[in-house]
């Protein structure tokens, strides 16, 4: 149930937010190509760290939480700097 909630929320965010922004803001929405690749790579890495080990054991482990936090902090550092 939680995985479905996460997937549904992400799908909603990726479809409604740009659409509403395009309706409200004048002009075009600019998508930066390197940013897209960084976002996609970070998303796939987070997915792999979160779900692949859980499929095998059927539960989440403490190291997964630490790895997810480390990947997120690294992603934020790359986006800011």
Poorly predicted sequence stretches spanning 5 or more consecutive residues: none
Q: How big is the Rg?
A: 16 Å
Oligomer: single chain
Topology order in helix (H) and strand (E) letters: HHH
Which structural category fits the helices and strands?
Answer: mainly alpha
Strand content: under 5%
Specify the number of helices.
Answer: 3
Q: Tell me about the largest β-sheet.
A: none
What is the number of E strands? Answer: 0
User: Helical amount among residues, as a percent range?
Assistant: over 70%
* Global shape: flat
Span between N and C termini? 36 Å
Average of the residue pLDDT scores: 83
Would you summarize the structure shown here?
With 81 residues, the protein is mainly alpha-helical. Helix content is 83%, strand content 0%. The longest helix is centred in the middle third of the chain and has 25 residues, at 33-57.
Summarize this structure as a short list of keywords or feature phrases:
81 residues; mainly alpha
Q: Explain this structure to me?
A:
With 81 residues, the protein is mainly alpha-helical. The chain has helices at residues 2-24, 33-57, 62-80. Helix 2 packs antiparallel against helix 3. It is flat. The model has no long low-confidence stretch (mean pLDDT 83).
Summarize the helices and strands and which ones pair or pack.
Layout: H1 2-24, H2 33-57, H3 62-80
Helix pairs in contact: 2-3
């Amino acid at each position: 149930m939680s995985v479905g909630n996460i997937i549904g929320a992400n799908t909603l965010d990726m479809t409604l937010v740009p659409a509403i922004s395009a309706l409200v803001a004048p002009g075009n929405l600019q998508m930066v190509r390197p940013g897209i690749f960084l976002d996609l790579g970070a998303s796939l890495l987070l997915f792999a760290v979160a779900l692949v080990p859980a499929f095998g054991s059927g539960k989440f482990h403490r190291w997964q939480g630490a790895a997810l936090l480390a990947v997120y902090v690294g992603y934020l550092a790359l986006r800011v700097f």
